[in-house]
Each structure stands twice: as structure tokens, then as C-alpha cells.
Amino acid sequence: MNRLERIKGCLLGGAVGDALGAPVEFLKWNDIHATFGARGIVDFAPAYGRVGAITDDTQMMLFTAEGLLRAHVRGISRGICHIPGVIHHALLRWLMTQDYSPAITSVSLDGWLVKERELWSRRAPGLTCLSALKASTEFGSFAQNDSKGCGAVMRVAPCAFFRNAFDVAADSGRLTHGHPTGYMAGGLFADILQRIVDRQDSLDDAIAKSLAEHGDKPGMEETRAIVERVLFFSYEGHRPAPERIDELGGGWIAEEALAIGIWCALTATSFEDGVINAVNHSGDSDSTGLIAGHLLGIQHGVEAIPDRWLAPLELRGVIEAVAEDIERVPRVFTVYGGEFDDEIWERYPGG
Ligand SMILES: [Mg+2]
């Protein structure tokens, strides 16, 4: 499988998981069961007035990707670039699509992504993300809060396709989430994805190597403990049933969302099976669906995603275009004088 198929699989897989979970994000398992039957939700159902609607998770993931691509352009044109600062600027563009005004008044609404009108829609945006982005007064400044909500995990997958995924993802998570568990879990997630795409590691190998390299860092304690727990569950053959996921936690916080996504991906018999397991529980179904979808899509490529989910997926064309742009640029943030790509330059103004 080539790199583009993995990138597309990752981004579209995440969006599909997000869309499957969207109608049940705020439902307890009992309600999901009562509405959709014993297996829970197994197909797209209407949310936000349509079938296949993505949520804030995919929106913010796309703007994170935009920030990374602009950081690449800026690196070539200026030779220096503060990557989290450029991602921050992109996330502030997202904030403006939600009809909020940031304290930073110099946000430019340029580039192609923000002009996609379908993105200008509120999909239950996370309150921590909103308040942190509204309050920040400087591009690249870290959030002044103690939140470890999963908002710093659910948007960082695109960091996997650029060098130093762990640090870039953790720093970009920290723009909105000040608790170390919140942003370190994001770093671990991007690092696991990077090992799969760059070295073709299996998911369990990638997790083991990521934990070996980053698991002892300060701030990683909670994430490490719960990820090791689901690794053990999976080695013991325990499959993620809704009640078992509820025992583990709701996934509203970073380390739980990551662990639920990992558990469902590790035990999946197919893309479909893993993503269905990941959204059927009482917690943050769209985010855990997105995390499992990223993990499965990057391993098995876009081919593994059922057509009945890809066809009605909102913003499918935008997501594919972003994946293709990521594949076109070098994964290293090139320093001044790197190779020039006119089209990328135009789409991601950064100079
Ligand atoms: Mg959401």
C-alpha cells in the first residue's frame, strides 16, 4: 500500500468514525440500544440535519492539517517557522467559522480551506477549545487552563505525516488544553500513527515502541496506565462491549478517548467492526469513533472503508484534497530554499 492510500485511509477513516458517532454523541448506551437495537448504531443516521455529518472533531483535524501545510510553506519561504504558532492561526480560522471572534484580531481568512462554506457550521464544538482559542492573545501561546478533555487528541492525526509527530502534536494540543495528560496523549496518538505510516509497524508494535520511547515522560502517567490496560485486555482476548467501555470511562477525557480508540482498533476484525465498537457506549462516541477510524484507516488504507459510509460522508472531497496535499509535500519541515510547489504555495499561503 502506498503512502497516499494510508494518508487518505487515516483522514477519511477518522471522519467516517466521527460521522458514525455523531448521532449518538450525547446518548447513553441504554438509549442507543433502545433506538438502534441490540448491536447499537451500525450505520449512518441523521445528525445536524443530514446523513454523514462530521463534527467539530473532523473540522479541527482539517484545520490542523492546514496549519501543518502552511508551516511547510512558511519554512521554505522564510527559513524559520514556529509550527505550533502556524497551527494556532489555522485553529483560529476554525474558531471564526463557528462565529466567534478571537482576542487576536490579525487572523487572516485566506487560503482555500476556510472558504469551504460547508465548514462554517457548528457541530457541538468543545467548550475548552472555544474558550482557549477565544482567550489567547498570541499565536503559539499555550492554554491557561487545566483541561484534559479529548480535544487535544481528536484533531492531531495529521501531525503523523510530518517529522517529530510527538512534539508537534503535543505542542499543538497544548494550545487549547493545559493539563499534561491532555496534550501528551495527543503526542502519543500521533507518534503511534507515524510509526504505522513510516515503518509499516503493526498497531501493537507501534504502541509498544511509542510507550517505550515516550511512556516515561512526565505527564504521561495516566495515559500510559490506561493504554497498558487496554493492551492487556486485547492480549487476553477481551473485546470491547458497550458496558466494558463504560467501565473504562466515557472518553470525554484525553487518555480515555485514546484508550477506547486503541482497544477497538486492536481487536477489530475489520474497519467496520472496529469503528462500530468504538461509537457504541455512553461516552464521547464521535471522538472515540474518529480515533479508532484514524488507527484502522492508516493501517488498512481507504479501500478498507465501506462505500456505504464514504459515499454520503460530508466534506469527503475536502478531506481527500487535504490528504493529497499532505502527500505532495516532504514530511520534513524544509528549511529555507527547499523545493517549491506553486500549487501548494497558492493553497497554503504562509510566506
Ligand atoms: Mg465532536
From TrEMBL:
<protein>
    <submittedName>
        <fullName>Crystallin J1</fullName>
    </submittedName>
</protein>
<feature type="binding site">
    <location>
        <position position="286"/>
    </location>
    <ligand>
        <name>Mg(2+)</name>
    </ligand>
</feature>
<keyword id="KW-0378">Hydrolase</keyword>
<keyword id="KW-0479">Metal-binding</keyword>
<dbReference type="InterPro" id="IPR005502">
    <property type="entry name" value="Ribosyl_crysJ1"/>
</dbReference>
<feature type="binding site">
    <location>
        <position position="55"/>
    </location>
    <ligand>
        <name>Mg(2+)</name>
    </ligand>
</feature>
<dbReference type="GO" id="GO:0016787">
    <property type="term" value="F:hydrolase activity"/>
</dbReference>
<dbReference type="InterPro" id="IPR050792">
    <property type="entry name" value="ADP-ribosylglycohydrolase"/>
</dbReference>
<keyword id="KW-0460">Magnesium</keyword>
<dbReference type="GO" id="GO:0046872">
    <property type="term" value="F:metal ion binding"/>
</dbReference>
<comment type="similarity">
    <text>Belongs to the ADP-ribosylglycohydrolase family.</text>
</comment>
<feature type="binding site">
    <location>
        <position position="287"/>
    </location>
    <ligand>
        <name>Mg(2+)</name>
    </ligand>
</feature>
<feature type="binding site">
    <location>
        <position position="284"/>
    </location>
    <ligand>
        <name>Mg(2+)</name>
    </ligand>
</feature>
<feature type="binding site">
    <location>
        <position position="57"/>
    </location>
    <ligand>
        <name>Mg(2+)</name>
    </ligand>
</feature>
<feature type="binding site">
    <location>
        <position position="56"/>
    </location>
    <ligand>
        <name>Mg(2+)</name>
    </ligand>
</feature>
<dbReference type="Pfam" id="PF03747">
    <property type="entry name" value="ADP_ribosyl_GH"/>
</dbReference>
<dbReference type="InterPro" id="IPR036705">
    <property type="entry name" value="Ribosyl_crysJ1_sf"/>
</dbReference>
